[in-house]
Amino acid sequence: MAATHPESTTQRTRKRRGRVDTPSAPSADGQARPPKSKLREWVEALVFALVVMLVVRTFLFDLFRIPTPSMEKTLLVGDYLFVSKLHYGVRTPISLGIPFTKIYVPGLTLPHTRLPGFTEIERGDVIVFNYPPEDLPIDRKTHYIKRVVGLPGDTLWIQNKVVYVNGEPQSLRPTMQQYWRIIKSDPRIMLPEVRLAELGIEEVQPTPDPRQVLIMATPEAAEAIAQWPYVERVEPLVIPRGGTYSDLMYPPGMGYSPDNYGPVVIPAQGLNVTLTEENWPYLEPVIRRYEGHTTGRQQDGTFLIDGRPATTYTFRQDYYFVMGDNRDNSEDSRFWGFVPMDHVVGKALFIYFSWDGRHHLPRLNRLFKPIR
């Protein structure tokens, strides 16, 4: 017969009541320790959860919310995104401070690198990055989200709203939208609001010409309107070169507009370029801001890098040209320039939640929707 330990009367009573006390753990000197208080258990659990969250958000993935309409209709205001940091490789911390805030030790830059990822950035990817022009350490800059249009080494230009990359026109995706000019056959006809709403069109603007109306729409919606019997034609609204936009573009003063831009060559790691009057205006800020050199010009026009005459320059990292899917309502590379690789945070994968602030309801049809 197996031996059993006798139970005291108190222990038998506690078991009948459904309660079993945890015995005190012995300390190093053999003395029993008192059990942890509930407060201490909660504090330890909270600290553990914070550490796990910090590690996950720093090295695996992060969560972001869309606050502006610059990516409509691909992404809507109120969409919550799952962003992978593993795809392009994890970027180690650059500044020292409180994580995920703009509180940091000024003047201190940590040695940093990007760990290997399992894919390269491809044209068409929707990426999250730190806003390049902001005057803060890279990992403390505001997060932006845009679509990659131009890759390192590409030659890009925009002509009458059509983006050309290495000479190839890039068609609009189904969820992209822009302004279109609707020319009606009769100025007295009003476009029916119900039919516009069915096509997802919320913005309609009158013009001085009663025959013309401006709408913000996807290519599919614009094509559908063009089939209406009282619509003569539908055409993109194009802003010509020059005018008031010239000083707002990147680089300023080149006569560019959002719809007629470039051409520009996108810098690439190891790319050696000959410096010219044509490319100096858009390459000089890159060399100075993101490559860490001083730049200037001599009186005779000679280019200076770190105080020495230069006729060529070799870039140390890759750069990307990004644009919003809401082409006429997006502040992107057309306005502030290229995205350096060390500013890239990760790849947007899917929408895990969406909140319609106008109607104060969740958008259930967008839950776990992949981002394409």
From TrEMBL:
The chain crosses the membrane at residues 45-64. It catalyses: Cleavage of hydrophobic, N-terminal signal or leader sequences from secreted and periplasmic proteins. Its EC number is 3.4.21.89. This is Signal peptidase I. PANTHER family: CHLOROPLAST PROCESSING PEPTIDASE (PTHR43390:SF1), SIGNAL PEPTIDASE I (PTHR43390). The active site is at S70, K146. It comes from Rhodothermus marinus (strain ATCC 43812 / DSM 4252 / R-10). One of its GO terms (biological process) is signal peptide processing. It is a single-pass type II membrane protein. The keyword Manganese does not apply. Residues 1-35 are annotated as: Disordered. It comes from the Bacteria. Residues 39-179, 284-353 form the Peptidase S26 domain. Keywords: Hydrolase, Membrane, Protease, Transmembrane, Transmembrane helix. Belongs to the peptidase S26 family. The lineage of its organism: Bacteria, Pseudomonadati, Rhodothermota, Rhodothermia, Rhodothermales. PROSITE patterns: SPASE_I_2, SPASE_I_3.
